[in-house]
Amino acid sequence: MTVAVNTRSNRSLLIASLALCAGMAGCMRSEGGLPVKQDRFVKFTSHLGNSFVAPSQWTATDKGDTFSLKSPDGHAVITTTVYTSEGSGSLDEFREIMTAGLLPDGASRWQDSKWTTIKLGDVDAHTRELIAIPDSDTQWRLYVVDGGKYYHAIFLHASKITMALNGEVYESIVMTFEGIRE
């Protein structure tokens, strides 16, 4: 199944929509009648050139081949890791390596689920929801991108309740991903 989630023209629309949502939040009032703090969206870029657009209150960590964004409440983390495609096998092999390497402590395996194809910008990405066996409170989504000389693995994880409440917001941040290419 292929889902066209984001193209170059839709990327601008997505970023504008995120900015509009942030701007509208400034019009809301807290329980005490004070305005809710307004946030803006910024582009976070790693030293390797991988980037996401996210609210400015998110924090970025850039270490070697790994770049992470963490929500201000600490409930969600988006991490991307870069591997050279040479020596990492085919894209299908890379997907399976990433899936196996992500298995959390205490889990014996992932529940069977299908890979789907989506668009991240102008590139195809493969995504899969990962549910640990035995079941845990954490929900994982893995996105794999073939960037030519480089493969990118993007991991989104948060508690199930947080993902149910904010998963669309987190996924919209993943959709802004731009990876290094050569």
What is the fold's blueprint, element by element?
Blueprint: E1 2-3, H1 8-25, E2 41-45, E3 51-55, E4 59-63, E5 66-70, E6 76-84, H2 91-101, E7 109-110, E8 116-120, E9 123-130, E10 132-133, E11 138-146, E12 150-159, H3 160-174
Largest sheet: 8 strands, mixed
- The tally of strands reads 12
- Secondary-structure element order, N to C: EHEEEEEHEEEEEEH
Number of helices: 3
- Approximate helicity band: 10-25%
Radius of gyration (CA) equals: 17 Å
The assigned structural class equals alpha+beta
Overall mean pLDDT score?
81
**Which range does the strand content fall in?**
35-45%
The shape, in one word, is globular
Identify the strand order in the major beta sheet: 1-8-9-11-12-6-5-4
Measured between the Cα atoms of the first and last residue, the distance is: 28 Å
The parts where pLDDT drops under 50 for at least 5 residues are: 1-36
List keywords for this structure.
single chain; 182 residues; alpha+beta; eight-stranded mixed β-sheet; two-stranded antiparallel ribbon; 12 strands; 24% helix; 37% strand; disordered N terminus
Walk me through this protein's architecture.
- Strands 1-8-9-11-12-6-5-4 form an 8-stranded mixed beta sheet.
- The chain has 182 residues and is of the alpha+beta class.
- The longest helix is centred in the N-terminal third of the chain and has 18 residues.
- It is built from 3 helices and 12 strands, in the order βαβββββαββββββα.
- The chain is globular, with a radius of gyration of 17 Å.
- The two termini are 28 Å apart.
- 24% of the residues lie in helices and 37% in strands.
